[in-house]
Records
---
Amino acid sequence: MTEFPDPLRQIEAHAYQRRRRRLGLAGNVVELAGLVAIVAVTGSIGGWWALVLLVAGLFLLGLPFGYAGYRLSRAHGLSRQTTAGWAADRLKGAAIGLVLGGAAGAALIGIQRAAGDGWPLPAWIAIVAFSAVLAALWPVLLLPIFLRSEPMASGDLADALWETARRANVHVRDMRLLKMGEKTAAANAMVAGLGPTVRIYVSDTLAETEEGEDEGGALARTRVVLAHELGHHVHRDMWRLMVVSAASLAAGILGAWAAVEAFAPDGAGHVSTLPSVVLGFTLASAVVSPLVAAYSRRRERAADAYAADLAGEGETFARAMERLVARNLSELDPPRLYHLLTSSHPTPAERIAVARAGGRVPAA
């Protein structure tokens, strides 16, 4: 019988995640340096050329790090995509970013011209509204561009999941099987959308029976992960996190305002403003992101407690987490500082230990 967590698998996980962190840090440093350089030369090359440099430069600077991350994932058996498939997804993301970013940039310039020095407040209101619209449209418009899904077909899996939803007393409009297995070996589930677009997604990889596991074990694992997602739904975490996101966006807008005042050569309301906006927003958002991550971890603990209660025992949840750690090549204990600054979830080791100890974290 396979030992969980598998010590050899954890050695591989440490190596894989360490390389991912290094790639991410290097990519962030290079892109930030590129952004600073673009802001520095904006006054001499003109606003439109600075905008072209901003869009093309950041895409090209990030490309080698993204490709290295893809190759690393392939080397460790997580990615199932071909290079052509990865490149296609990268281009799709760039095209969507160009359309959405172009609309946001044009709207910001219009707001700056209309509101004058008071532009940060209406800009913040607009970006919060824009974020809410994107959250609502994500499962019906954007997600299908990258991943296929289908309604949960009849069978033992569907029966178990719908029964879990009934036990939670949650009315689920749509439960879908996400075809993640076409692109990755990793497993996941999520609640996406707002209001009428809310959907619960369970990846096909999550429901796969693994080596040394019977079909009942796969069903139990999938049910407890769904119970965690239902916990988010019951606690209205999508709305809670939107409020926290609005506060984070306020910090980003203040950073953008400060950067425009300090670096934009023509002042607010011009195309030359946009590189400074991106720089200030990026830096200010990075400063407050650990607070957002800390709140997210709190919500995840509450959802864990809900899942353990719904499953009837913490051991079921703990075993499911161990399987997911092994499958997704996650570290049980990532570096503490990195975890505190960036992680949206508690460490797997903490989640497993709390579940096994019968601990309960009440929802706030």
---
Amino acid sequence: MKRPFHLLYLLLTLGLLLAGTACNRSEPPQVSLKTAEVASKTAPVKRMPPLRIGMGAMITPKEGYVYYQRLQGYIEKRLGRPVQLVDRENYDEMNGLLESGGVDAAFVCAGPYVEGKSKFNLELLAMPLVKGEPIYYSYILVHKDSPISSFKELRGKTFAFTDPKSNSGKLVPTYMLARMKETPESYFSRVEYTYGHDKSIRAVAEKIVDGAAVDSLIWEYIAIKKPELTGQTRIIAKSAPYGIPPMVVRPGLDPEIRKKLKDILLSAANDPEGKEILKGMMIDSFVAGDDKNYDTIRTMNVWIARQRNAAK
């Protein structure tokens, strides 16, 4: 009598288990749907494209790249979106990316800013202040043991430019030659492009070239960080002041992002973390960009163009 009862009990239990399994297959638990819904809402935030910042021209040389990485993280945290650093070897490439939308913002040389402003309405965002001013100079260097003591004595010598579009590393010395009714080709025996102010300093220090034109900010930075390198060079000429290499943004950048980025830069010196980063870059602070600060470069470009046309 006990066996039929146990058998019936087992059959009933098995039926209930199968029914429960069938229900689970046809009706997924509500918690899974909620999880999927939450995931779909948060996914766009994770896929937010990064703000791409170009490093076309830095007032701190590549040796100080760690500070640009820290600035990247600083901006990223306050902007609330990823930030990607984009490096290029020459100024033309960086301006090309700004024009095409390949980068959203960039540190650029003063010369390429003036060109980009004229060519495709490149927008000035902010200017760094160094020793309280938004200016810098072109230094003409020779080796410390060189008998050369003036720019005029470099006739027939080898000379290093940094980049064809560099203001301090090419345009300024070309302007100096134009005032003498000369060109780099007629004046120097050979011209080299190093594509880096620190590389030009090293080229002079190691006697690869007789002279070079470099960014004063880079020379001053290296003089503190690597005095043994700049100690092998001597400044024989200092140009008039020019507008400092600024930070720019591409045309068409979202106005809200543009404003946030500008506010982050302008307030960095008032924040302990931001102030420490700027100090490492040898920057006092950032101020709003003023296009008039670059009029002297425009005047220089006009003079050079006139001299070239007169020579034809």
---
Amino acid sequence: MRTKLGQLITRNWVIKLVALSLSLMLYLAVSAQQPTSQILTLKLNVEMPPGRTLTSKLPTVAVQISGRGSELLKLRAFPPVIRRPVPDTLAGSVWLVRLQPSDVQIPKGVDVRVDDIVPRDVELRLSAVQRKEVRIVPRISVVAESGYVLHGGLSVTPAIAQLIGPEDRLARIDSVSTVSVQLSGVTGPFTRTVPLDTSVLGVVRVVPKDVEIAGNVGALIERSFAGILVETGAGGFTSFEVSPVRVAVAVRGPEELVAGLARDSFRVVAHLPGAAIVGAYAHLTVVGPPGVIARAVPDSVVLRRRPPRSPPATPRAPRRG
């Protein structure tokens, strides 16, 4: 009986071994296509800004992943990672991270789903930094077209930047500037977004990264205002008068400024460079509104002796009849 049982087992054993192998392979193939899940233990990777260090240990995170068995097997060669960058704007020494399943980076070509992550809230401690507010200096040159000029200066928005970094580094910085930019062929109002120059900041971070520069390039016009009285005041002019007494003022500037000017927008003041003598010349200075160029025509006047005043006439006594 035992002999027959042994012969039954060993008969055609090669065929039976192949059949067993095929069955096992079929079972594994079917199992690999069945959905399943597993828990992976991953380490949180934190990307630190320049100049900051992590003072606490990085925690491990349990991640539940589901998918076909064949896809889960791929994770053995290419495990997923959890990577979170520390915000540049963070100045505190404690960073509370709230993890989401979307934070788990699955390798490309692996079709799995992240179902859960534990713990969700992670507290990390970082080296301390300070904040400091500084002004922003624009390094912008405007090359206007012929017949145009920049007026009113440039505006910077925002005008203040916030620096974040070690206290000793911040103490050396009083301002930040934009990168050097030249604007040409500009007419009329304009705005440009210009990045800040961070090349000299080292580990110090700045917020914002760029600013908006605005200005106005207007057309130039010229006007002339005649008959403006020359002011001499007191001093060396006491015994003298100037000739001519009235002069013209030639004005050049942006159209919208020059168009609104009038004669009373200017004062012409005489200045003596030397002693006050007959025939000496006094230079003229024009005082006018900002943003325009004004000059007197002529640009100097000559001194003349002031004629003596005639004595007042003596009233006649009435005749008696």
---
Amino acid sequence: MDYIIFIISMAALIKGADFIIKESEKIALHFGISEFVIGATLIALGTSLPEMAASIVASYNHKSELAVSNVIGSVALNITLVLGLVFLIAKEINPRRDIFTQDSAWALFPVFIFLLVAYDGTITRAEGLTFLLLMAGYLLFLSKEPSIVAEEVDEELAKEKFNWPPTIALLILGFVMVIYGADYAVESASNIARSLGVSEWIIGLFLVSFGTSLPELIVSIQAAIAKKADMSIGNIIGSNVANFSVVLGSAAAVRPLDVDLHRYGFDILVAFIASLMLVFITANKLYNKSAGIALLVTLAIFVLNHIP
């Protein structure tokens, strides 16, 4: 039964992602907003809801390790797995936005803030609220973005008359399908993993973070296939900012989080290195298959380190 649920949930994820991308593009066209900003805000926050739900529940149930590892694992997977696959799948990636100049700091700044507040072993409620302010700062930064109408748009989509009610309805439906699809995918995959004798630690660190990263994975790949590179990369950067700010901040606001930097040292290092790789890739505009392979190799090292 778990195998059937997993297949159905993945189908819901894919179709939901399709709704999100199409309706987000309609909004971008209507308001003259760049696809990067749409990806970094509306889509990023929406696809980060599974991480937020998982971490808040974990924090409420006194499971700080799960709440923190979910965020660290999701950040590492978003860059190494999601972007790695995007670079391999997309036929051409040529973002119109200078991502390095405008956004690279946001790929690294949240990691430094996390290390700073977690150094004493605890993320307090006040520090959690500080994380939430970080997301507010990011949204304010993006609000200053000049209006840029996408140069390459779906001609049929551009001809459609914009109508808020169906757009909002399909966006909500898409997010519901993505979020619940991810939820059931995680639950069914966890049951499958346990039936195969996989340890709870591996399930918690990788399966939960992978499951909650499924929305970013599906949405970004769908956007890459649709030649919406700016939306894909914006989704990843925005999601990582949201993971450290909204997700971790909300979890800490519910209950202070205990953080064992020694235990999670390697995982945090991988998330940091992955963030550095993202900055290096954007600085040199290495949006190609070689960069994708390098990111996936980093993912392989991350996974292999936890295999007995």
